[in-house]
Structure of Anaerobic sulfite reductase subunit A:
Amino acid sequence: MGYSTTTEKFDEFLNSIGGEYNIYAPVDMEGMGRFSDTDSVRYEKIKSIADIEFVRKSDFSPKEVLLPITQTLFYFTEDSVKEPKISDKKILLFLRSCDIHAIKRLDQIYLKSGFEDIYYKELRQKVKLVLMECEHSFENCFCTSMNSNKTDEYNMFVRYRDGKVFVECRDECFGKYFENTETCDLKPKFVEENDINVNVPENVDESIIKSPVWKEYSSRCIACGRCNVVCGTCTCFSMQDIFYSENKNAGERRRVWSSCEVDGYTDIAGGHSFRQDKGDRMRFKVLHKISHFKKRFGYDMCVGCGRCDDVCPEYISFSNCINKLSQ
């Protein structure tokens, strides 16, 4: 069962829970795109449903809400260590089916791999998920090939159309706000097919690992790491110790996003570095997404959102690469 309400009534709901929740959704950021006079769609706090970009795919994933780009782990002085305070507010997060599947991958890595990351866990347990439907496939998406086009793992579903808001509440804490609202039959629509089909190879053997296909990416890739930044399932990070200018013995340790594609990521003590060749880095990333992760956890890491293809300045296609490996 669903509810049908007006924009004004739904905004009243958002305002009512605003004291308890920080509400994040994809927002059209005018003039903030990669090129002049272009926009960017990324996640920001919102106060009205009119702020949400329902039509276009977000350029960045909702990952940055759960894994901040820069996150202080603790502050230190000469004789003390102190963890930062975390907001008591819960998080309401609007996202599409593929991104809900991506969060499952983040949970697997940070909570179910033999240890629990306390910083991720503290944010993750505050999150409620709001499903945004995809009525059609976006450019470069291949979610149907990765079985991430459908989901039932959400707390609320919201459809915004012609000035009316349709809501399905699967969480009682939200349902109470719509008790006196008109009811209706409501089910989310999911993408049934994409323009791009991907065939993931069942078995990765030595022939794929040593294939000359990777040499192509040695010449094309510029190691910018954009594909990792926009990916909803990439989790690589580095550590930074920041020392304050007024006291060289005090500072903070930060976890900062990084990328397996960039120079220096695999540097180790003694000056050695793994995967100096950009084709080797591409091989590592691709096989991690479609083979290594699956061998360990039973399902692919990639969810087929297509953002890596959207953002690559060299027009390197992740989906094309997978199909090449299958061939």
In short: The chain has a mean pLDDT of 93. The first helix runs from residue 7 to 17. The chain has one domain: 2-326. Residues 2-326 form one domain.
